[in-house]
Specification:
This protein is an alpha+beta fold. It contains eight helices and 18 strands. The structure holds uridine-diphosphate-2(N-acetylglucosaminyl) butyric acid (EPU).
């Protein structure tokens, strides 16, 4: 019997989920589940894990590239109402994993709750943002997260305090666990001041990054203190292209997908950038974006 039978009304198969990513490209995902709530999610994850099916969560789709061969596992979308709740208790907020960061930011600005404005313009769901400690020069999730609730492979729910999360540059110890919700400690502030700060942070991004293009944000992590964008720029790669994928002229750590671009174009361009940077400066660039491919392709590449 197929493992997904008991969840049949909320799991679809061979879904072109690439359209739900910012890059809007890539092949089909084998299963796409939209659980009703945390309990349902736990049951689905438990079943899939028992069958050895790899599980991924698609948040805002801003940091993911699905290969042209698709992904042969289970992709979960946390867009049901229980995952999109925001609760407030004084200056403490509990936001579901499926809450859109920009929505939460605006909500907090309106209520005079400060602390998140440094994340303005970063496309993320709360779950995805916490998981990778998304951020930029004005701040990151680790500045405000005090606790998260997670689901493990066995479907068990755990509450982790910030000390256990191991926040680092664009990373945490969360691994394959799925974020259910995060608690954020904010501070009371004059709403107008909070909004001004939000607009300043957003303005900086608008001036220095190709926000109007189809991209997945920064492609590579910054190696140490240096900006990957500046390193790629120094390697004279701005404007370099493969097919319809092009290194942005505005910020070299962005790859723009022009009409007709495929995931293969983007992956080849990533290779070109890595090799050129390695030759020019000896620096090994590490991917910030998450590439989803079928297991057989992953085995060949290993
Ligand atoms: N620079 C260049 N050429 C470029 C890009 C940047 O010379 O093509 C120079 C800039 O002039 C500046 C320095 O590099 O002197 C740093 O650039 P920037 O301030 O844009 O910061 P970044 O380190 O390149 C980081 C984050 C961004 C975030 C910005 C701003 C990473 C990998 N990148 O970029 O995050 O928006 O700071 O806060 O951590 C993302 O994670 O998707 C992302 C875009």
């Amino acid at each position: 019997m197929n493992w997904w039978r008991e969840f049949a009304d909320r799991i679809r198969h061979d879904v072109p989920a690439g359209r739900q990513t910012w890059f809007r490209m890539g092949g089909p995902v084998r299963h796409l589940a939209r659980p009703r709530d945390a309990e349902d999610l736990a049951a689905i994850v438990r079943r899939a894990s028992a069958e050895g099916v790899p599980v991924k969560v698609l948040g805002a789709g801003a940091n993911v590239l699905i290969s042209d061969d698709g992904f042969d596992g289970l992709v979960v979308r946390l867009d049901a109402a229980p995952f999109r709740q925001i609760r407030r208790d004084g200056n403490t907020i509990v936001a579901g994993a499926g809450v859109d960061l920009m929505r939460l930011l605006k909500w907090c600005c309106g209520k005079g709750l400060a602390g998140l404005e440094g994340l303005a313009g970063i496309p993320a769901s709360i779950g995805g943002g916490v998981c990778m400690n998304a951020g930029g020069r004005f701040g990151s999730f680790s500045d405000v997260v005090s606790r998260v609730w997670l689901i493990g492979d066995e479907g068990e729910v755990e509450g982790w305090d910030r000390s256990r999360l191991g926040f680092g540059y664009r990373g945490t110890n969360i691994g394959r666990r799925i974020v259910l919700a995060a608690e954020l400690e904010l501070v009371e502030e004059d709403p107008q001041r909070t909004r001004r700060h939000y607009e300043q942070c957003l303005g900086f991004k608008q001036r220095s990054q190709p926000l109007a293009q189809r991209t997945a944000g920064c492609v590579f992590k910054n190696p140490g203190e240096q900006s990957a964008g500046a390193i790629i720029d120094r390697a004279e790669l701005k404007g370099a292209s493969v097919g319809q994928a092009r290194v942005s002229r505005r910020h070299a750590n962005f790859i723009e997908a022009h009409p007709g671009a495929t995931a293969t174009d983007v992956l080849r361009l990533i290779d070109v950038v890595r090799k050129t940077v390695r030759q020019r400066s000896g620096i090994e660039l590490e991917l910030e974006i998450d590439v989803w491919r079928p297991a057989r392709v992953r085995e060949c590449a290993a």
